[in-house]
C-alpha cells in the first residue's frame, strides 16, 4: 500500500510538471512521463529512484538539457592569436604573440560609434577610457607596464584578478574597451554598475555586438573580478545569445573549466552547441 501511495504521489508530481510547461514542451514531457510511469510500476522502483527519475524528467521536459548540449568546435591558431569557432579569444589560457599589434578593430569601432550615438539620444554619454582615438587598444608593452604597476601596488595575487598578464589581454586583441559614464567621469570601479551608462550597455550592448565580459558571480570562470565597464565585441549574433543566457564567453564556447585546447577539433558542452543544430 505504501509503495502504491508513493507511486501515485510521484505520478501526480510528474503530471503537474507537464501541465505547467510551455506548449512546445508538453508533448515531449508526456512521452517521458509515460515511460517513467511504466518503469515505476513494473520494476517496483523505490522512492529514492522515483525522485531521481522525477528530477531527470523535469530537466528533460523543460528543455534545459539544450544548455549542456554537446557539439564539435574548431580551434585555430595563426601564430598570432587563437580563434574558437571563428571568434578571437584571449584569456588566462589563450594568449597572443608579443608582436601582435592589430590596433582597434574597425568593425568594433563602427559598432561602438553607433551605440554611443544611440545612447546620446537618451542623454547618456559613453566614453572610452584610455588613449584618445585608441578605442581601448593596448599593445603588449603598454599592458606589461600596467600589469607591473598593479603588482607593485597590490601584489601579484590581487593584480592578477584585476589586470591581464601581458599577452593575454583582450585589449591587445583590439576587441575590448573600458567604458565610463561621460557625464560624471567616474573611475573604473564596480560603482559604475549603477550609472546610466552601465544600464544602457547591459540592456542594449548586444544590439551592437557587445557583451559585458567579466560578469558578477562568474569570477571563478573568467579569472577576473566583476568589471561592468569592460565590454568585448563579438558581433550581434553571438552577443545576443550570450546576453540571453547570461553567461560568459567561456561558457558559450564550451571551454569553461577545461585545459587549454591546441589547434584542432574538439567535443565540448557549451551554450553555442544549441545553436549549431
From TrEMBL:
<feature type="domain" description="D-alanyl-D-alanine carboxypeptidase-like core">
    <location>
        <begin position="105"/>
        <end position="235"/>
    </location>
</feature>
<dbReference type="InterPro" id="IPR009045">
    <property type="entry name" value="Zn_M74/Hedgehog-like"/>
</dbReference>
<dbReference type="InterPro" id="IPR052179">
    <property type="entry name" value="DD-CPase-like"/>
</dbReference>
<dbReference type="InterPro" id="IPR003709">
    <property type="entry name" value="VanY-like_core_dom"/>
</dbReference>
<dbReference type="GO" id="GO:0006508">
    <property type="term" value="P:proteolysis"/>
</dbReference>
<protein>
    <submittedName>
        <fullName>D-alanyl-D-alanine carboxypeptidase family protein</fullName>
    </submittedName>
</protein>
<dbReference type="GO" id="GO:0004180">
    <property type="term" value="F:carboxypeptidase activity"/>
</dbReference>
<keyword id="KW-0378">Hydrolase</keyword>
<keyword id="KW-0645">Protease</keyword>
<dbReference type="InterPro" id="IPR058193">
    <property type="entry name" value="VanY/YodJ_core_dom"/>
</dbReference>
<keyword id="KW-0121">Carboxypeptidase</keyword>
<dbReference type="Pfam" id="PF02557">
    <property type="entry name" value="VanY"/>
</dbReference>
Amino acid at each position: 500500500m505504501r509503495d502504491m501511495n508513493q507511486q501515485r504521489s510521484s505520478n501526480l508530481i510528474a503530471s503537474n510538471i507537464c501541465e505547467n510547461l510551455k506548449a512546445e514542451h508538453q508533448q515531449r514531457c508526456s512521452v517521458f512521463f509515460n515511460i517513467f510511469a511504466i518503469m515505476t510500476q513494473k520494476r517496483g522502483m523505490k522512492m529514492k529512484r522515483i525522485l531521481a527519475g522525477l528530477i531527470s524528467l523535469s530537466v528533460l521536459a523543460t528543455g534545459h538539457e539544450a544548455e549542456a548540449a554537446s557539439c564539435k568546435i574548431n580551434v585555430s591558431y595563426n601564430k598570432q592569436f587563437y580563434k574558437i569557432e571563428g571568434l578571437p579569444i584571449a584569456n588566462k589560457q589563450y594568449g597572443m604573440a608579443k608582436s601582435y599589434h592589430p590596433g582597434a578593430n574597425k568593425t568594433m569601432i563602427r559598432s561602438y560609434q553607433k551605440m554611443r550615438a544611440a545612447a546620446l539620444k537618451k542623454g547618456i554619454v559613453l566614453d572610452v577610457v584610455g588613449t584618445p582615438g585608441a578605442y581601448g587598444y593596448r599593445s603588449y608593452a603598454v599592458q606589461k607596464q600596467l600589469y607591473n604597476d598593479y603588482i607593485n601596488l597590490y601584489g601579484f595575487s590581487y593584480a592578477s584578478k584585476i589586470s591581464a598578464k601581458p599577452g593575454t589581454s583582450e585589449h591587445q586583441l583590439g576587441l575590448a574597451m573600458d567604458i565610463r559614464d561621460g557625464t560624471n567621469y567616474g573611475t573604473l570601479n564596480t560603482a559604475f554598475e549603477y550609472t546610466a551608462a552601465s544600464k544602457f550597455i547591459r540592456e542594449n550592448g548586444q544590439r551592437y555586438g557587445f557583451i559585458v565580459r567579466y560578469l558578477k558571480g562568474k569570477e571563478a570562470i573568467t579569472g577576473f573580478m566583476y568589471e561592468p565597464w569592460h565590454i568585448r565585441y563579438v558581433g550581434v549574433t553571438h552577443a545576443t545569445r550570450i546576453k540571453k543566457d547570461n553567461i560568459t564567453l567561456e561558457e558559450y564556447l564550451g571551454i569553461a573549466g577545461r585545459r587549454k585546447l591546441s589547434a584542432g577539433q574538439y567535443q565540448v558542452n557549451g551554450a553555442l552547441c544549441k545553436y549549431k543544430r
